[in-house]
Specification:
By secondary structure, the protein is α/β, with parallel strands linked by helices. It has 2 domains: 180 residues, 3-Layer(aba) Sandwich (Rossmann fold), CATH 3.40.50; 107 residues, Rossmann fold, CATH 3.40.50.1100. It contains 13 helices and 10 strands. The strands form 2 sheets. A 6-stranded mixed beta sheet has the order 1-2-10-7-8-9. It has a 4-stranded parallel beta sheet with strand order 5-4-3-6. α3 crosses α4 and α4 runs parallel beside α5. The two termini are 28 Å apart.
Length: 309
Amino acid sequence: MLISVLETKNHITQEVFLPEIKEMGVRLFVKRLDKIHPLASGNKFYKLKYNLEAAKQSGNSTVLTFGGAFSNHILATAASAEAAGLKSIGIIRGECPAEPNPTLKQARANGMTLSFMDRTTYRKKHEKEIIDRLQEEFGNFYLIPEGGTNALAIKGTAEILTDEDQTMDFICCSIGTGGTIAGLIKSAMPHQKVLGFSALKGEFIHQEIANLLQAHEIPSQNQYALFSTYHFGGYAKHKPELIAFIKKFKQATGIPLDPVYTGKLFYGVMDNIKSSFFPPGSHILLIHSGGLQGIQGFNQRFGETLETE
């Protein structure tokens, strides 16, 4: 089991004290999943936990997965597979860069074999023809989808909430492939509402999450709501006000955020606190899903100075 093979740090739940939070009469807490492990951190830890166990039980010595050049999932898979005694292959979207970024360098350092796939082919990556071609090239492997979301990932993310979280009224998380919010909805108490903040541009996310919940037979009723207006231009895109917010939040609370997922989540939650979305007396829990490893590459690309700790 992944938990037994990775050396982990205990995550903590940290209350955030800011004037605007006190003014609105609510309490805000952050579940610091970024503290779990330096490389396989946040929600990726939970998504990979049972997938790597299944890979070992199936007799496969290799796992293969997909992701972009700055992917948290790629690096987490590399680190987790190495700790579990498995080989790993990362199929990277796009052309091979002349100089690998920090994410790819670290993935290679953790033993991952990197193979680059043109974007046209990458869009068809889950088709049988493409998988057969990859098996011809690399031999047998255990396939983990892009972002890690599948039934075993949801089984893992359903373990994010613990007994200590039962006092919370709202559970807030970022949305990428949907595996984390699905697990949270599955495990949330009847009195709790799960709020998802999409990091992707487009209203399609509403139907995509509904389909995911239906496919995995997760009853939802009115237990969740989605926000699709805090994407700041789309996936992995940003605007100056997002970067300014991340820096200000870090200075005020000591909590680092990334510009792809958690920065947008925290911005959205704070915006809704200020607009009185949350009733007075509410206890709000934000899931810090990690992703801090990508900040070094982001700073190099854009000349920024975001902090990772």
